[in-house]
Amino acid sequence: MADFPANLRYSVEHEWIDDASPATVGVTSHAVEALGDVVYLELPEVGATVEAGTVIGEIESTKSVSELFSPVSGTVVEVNQAAIDDPALVNSEPFGAGWLFKVDVTGEGQLLSAEEYAQHAG
Amino acid sequence: MTTTKSPLHAEHVALGAHLTEFGGWDMPLRYSSDIAEHRAVREAAGLFDLSHMGGVSITGPEAGAFLDHALVGNLSALREMRARYTMICADDGGVLDDLIVYHNAPGEYFLVSNAANADTVLVALLERAAGFDVAVRDVSAGQALIAVQGPRAEEILREVLTEDPEISGGTALDDLRYYACLGMRFGDESVLVARTGYTGEDGFEVWVDVPHAVPLWRAFLAAGEPHGLVPAGLSARDSLRLEAGMPLYGHELDTTTTPFDAGMGRIVKLDKTHDDGTPVEFVGRAALAARRESAPARVLVGLRGTGRRPARAGYAVVQPDADGAPGPQVGTVTSGAPSPTLGHPVAMAYVTPEVSAEGTELAVDVRGRAEPFVVVPLPFYRRADA
């Protein structure tokens, strides 16, 4: 079973979120391994309102297109332009330089601990 | 659904492969990064397990005449130790499968089909064999197929296999041309080596009896590693063949498509004859002859994306609209991906003839947005020394 950073929380749709304010959101290493090489990111715009559990963008790999879900509700305050320009960052550092966006959190969806997420990811 | 496992399945698992169902088989999609595997094949070499491909042996005094009747090509004219790309069509000219046929020895041919079509092809061949002095046998289960592809493939092959005039079939590796084959030795075992592939690079496909498949796979990996060889999965195979403009059955080819629609009319030998000079009424001939004379309803073209988003199979090709919205549909994408070699999206699509000219600006409806594409000649990629 894979190890996931214990300081993060996770959605069942394979996004992670940290506990900073604003909070940073990304996709997990488990999601990235299933996707393959990421080639395109469609992210919400700064100022957009997102709702937990709803589709807020797309993550496209060489072979497939997947929807991105927001793990929390709130307002997007920053998107990772470096990852948009070089989506391979999401593969190489999904928990670091490959983060997706930052959000002022007003509400949370269902979030899992690292241990719970590891079980979910199987 | 139960899937068949390759004789190399345990090797793939040990290498950490991401497996996928393909044509009823459980095969490696990728081992690490599909882009890295793609680049390795373009720059050094890749090792592919193709054991899912169907294999049929055709033997007997009328083997050549039978293949002339059953397939669109002129296989009786195929010289020994040569291979040919051909197709098997239905009566209406629709493509049942695209194939490679090897002529191994007098009265001995070997035919390779796509995994998903292996049963269809075998059944059609058995039906069409009625009245011919020929034996048609499915030999898929006894053989593994391993491909070494890339600019370093020949060096690697030479380290693993040895030449033996006793089994070579009269050719030396030095003289082995594209679509030619020879017998070689792997230790004491004999294998069939063909200079064929599906990547747009130089390379070889090697048929080996199942008991020797694992040792041969390991020998290629070990010999190839210093040359930059990596194991490569179906994902890289698909992006490589797309860059090389090669059709994939189920995408560019299907039963509603004739070889002419796919731009492959040259492989249909309408003029092939029996020994006495009379025309061969091969299966699908009448429909294909009519199709050759009629104006095509659609044309297979290459599309280069000028934006960043790749088109995918099934997406609509549309007229570009001034406001960036998708306009009227003029075609359908059959294959599409970001091209790792070229750095922009590439796609193949069937479009109406009016918009098929090189340089025509079109768009693809990518989930509601019109992404710009332009018609370009195929292939997208051609290796420097080809």
In words, what does this structure look like?
The complex is a heterodimer of chains A (122) and B (386). Chain A is of the alpha+beta class and 122 residues long. Chain A is built from four helices and nine strands, in the order βββαβββββααβα. In chain A, strand 2 and strand 3 (23-27) form a beta hairpin. The longest helix of chain A has 8 residues, at 114-121. Chain B has 386 residues and is α+β, with helices and mostly antiparallel strands. Among the domains of chain B are: 4-53 and 142-243, Gyrase A, domain 2, CATH 3.30.1360; 299-376, Aminomethyltransferase beta-barrel domains (Elongation Factor Tu (Ef-tu), domain 3, Beta Barrel), CATH 2.40.30.110. Chain B is 19% helix and 34% strand. Chain B contains eight helices and 21 strands. In chain B, the strands form four sheets. Chain B has a seven-stranded mixed sheet, with helices on both faces. In chain B, helix 2 packs across helix 7 and helix 5 (153-160) crosses helix 6 (213-224). Chain B is globular and about 70 Å long. The chains are: A alpha+beta (122), B alpha+beta (386). The interface between A and B is medium-sized, with 13 and 17 residues. Chain A: The glycine cleavage system catalyzes the degradation of glycine. The H protein shuttles the methylamine group of glycine from the P protein to the T protein.
